[in-house]
Amino acid sequence: MHIPDGFIDIPTSAAFAAASAVAVAGAVKGARKQLSEQSAPLAGLTAVFIFAVQMLNFPVAAGTSGHLIGAALAMVLVGPYAATLALVVVLIIQAFLFADGGLTALGLSIFNMAVISVWVSFIVFMILKKILPRTKSWLVVASFIAALISVPAAAIGFVIQYAIGANATFSVGTVLNAMVGTHILIGIGEAIITALTVSAVLASRSDLVFGWDRKNSQLEIRS
Question: Per DSSP, what are the bridge partners of residue 58?
Fold first, then answer.
């Protein structure tokens, strides 16, 4: 999912870098209203966790491997605005310190993973929250589905960028089939990790989870 230098032409890279900059500016503004004194430290911890897990690859198929993006996980824990910022920080550090993705393609990667993946997962998650029962178990299910969809959504974002300004000679159809097929499998791994992590945090500190609507939780009276 990290795009190397030269794979997409400079005009397309510059256009998506500008779009990413606008999205990040909006996320900064939104995060100021969304984060509280309790949730702000969790946003930092979420970024550290995503950075660590993204360094671990797991095999998928035909010699390919994938890693956690963390968009849906961060979105459920700290909200979409803070999640976008957390992913941006992770991607910048990876690009500058570990050469994971090209610097000229950084705007492309940010747009796919920190914007598309986060906000697609948020939309899916909020729709499911309105449909499913308002319990912690079903919240975990919603997190699983949101994470599952968010990964191929980011892959489709790359395919669109490839169709606009690719420097390679592979057909768009070939890239679409390869990217979406592979990232559906990666999405399954992402969904499992997201569900397990959200479940663990809900069990210990549900008050810190953005996706858990505490106003709608019922009080339990014990004798």
Answer: 66
